[in-house]
């Protein structure tokens, strides 16, 4: 199977947008591990409509004007991985979930480590927001795009940083201190938020066939 890709520059590094037919199959990081997401042969196709639309929506997200994505998705993985990735799509903008909460949501409370492994294999970064999954204590934990980028994305969603300012070279110590507060806020949220019912999976979850 041949996949089409388009490269885009972003505030979190160069991203590789990958399509399978007319659906988005992957968003890969600039320094992604080669075997983290297994794909077939890749050909560059800058004119593929779904990739152009993905870039447009990502730019809106980085500009702070988009909180939800509306893209046709296709995920390749095991049934368990697809369950985890479907759960990622239900995490609202500006909120976080722990690995144990995701395990509970998919009905497998003992699968916390497996959830972590599946989260790390998430092929469609940012759109399927694995950056919103944190440790039970509020620690940011590992992230394929790097912890600095994870903190940046959470800062953006908390309204605490401006990627436009950073693009102009205006990042200062105050901005860096703002990012650092995100980790403290995330910990506080993890420690104080009440138990919740599993959220509805939304329309995109139907793409997983479960």
Biggest sheet descriptor: 4 strands, mixed
The unreliable regions are 165-184, 194-210
SSE arrangement, N to C = EEEEHHEHHEHHH
Number of domains: 1
Number of separate strands: 6
Number of continuous helical runs: 7
Shape: globular
The proportion of residues forming helix, as a percent range, comes to: 25-40%
Q: What is the CATH architecture descriptor?
A: Orthogonal Bundle
- CATH fold-type name: Arc Repressor Mutant, subunit A
Q: How much β-strand is present in the residues?
A: 5-15%
Q: What is Rg?
A: 17 Å
The N- to C-terminal Cα distance equals 24 Å
Which structural category do the helix and sheet elements fall into? alpha/beta
Q: CATH homologous superfamily - what is it?
A: Winged helix-like DNA-binding domain superfamily/Winged helix DNA-binding domain
Strand order of the largest sheet: 3-2-1-4
What is the name of the CATH class?
Answer: Mainly Alpha
Mean pLDDT: 82
Would you kindly provide a written description of the structure presented here, covering whatever features stand out?
The protein is an alpha/beta fold and 210 residues long. It has a single domain, classed as Arc Repressor Mutant, subunit A (Orthogonal Bundle). It contains seven helices and six strands. Strand 2 and strand 3 (23-28) form a beta hairpin.
Short description:
Helix content is 36%, strand content 13%.
For the structure shown, list the relevant keywords:
210 residues, alpha/beta, Arc Repressor Mutant, subunit A, four-stranded mixed sheet, two-stranded parallel sheet, globular, disordered C terminus
């Amino acid at each position: 199977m041949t996949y089409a890709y388009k490269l885009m520059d972003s505030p979190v590094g160069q991203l590789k947008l990958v399509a399978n037919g007319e659906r988005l199959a992957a968003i890969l990081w600039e320094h992604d591990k080669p075997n983290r997401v297994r794909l077939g042969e890749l050909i560059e196709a800058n004119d593929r409509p779904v990739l152009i639309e993905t870039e447009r929506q990502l730019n809106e997200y980085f500009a702070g004007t988009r909180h939800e994505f509306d893209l046709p998705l296709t995920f390749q993985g095991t049934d368990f991985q697809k369950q985890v990735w479907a759960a990622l799509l239900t995490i609202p903008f500006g909120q976080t979930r722990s690995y144990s909460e995701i395990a509970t949501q998919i009905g497998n409370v003992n699968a916390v480590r497996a959830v972590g492994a599946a989260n790390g294999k998430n092929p469609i970064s940012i759109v399927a927001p694995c950056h919103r999954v944190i440790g039970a204590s509020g620690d940011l934990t590992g992230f394929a795009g790097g912890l600095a980028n994870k903190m940046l994305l959470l800062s953006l969603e908390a309204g605490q940083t401006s990627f436009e300012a950073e693009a102009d070279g205006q990042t200062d110590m105050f901005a860096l201190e703002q990012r650092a507060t995100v980790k403290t806020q995330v910990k506080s949220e993890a420690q104080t938020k009440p138990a919740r019912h599993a959220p509805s999976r939304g329309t995109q979850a139907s793409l997983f066939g479960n």
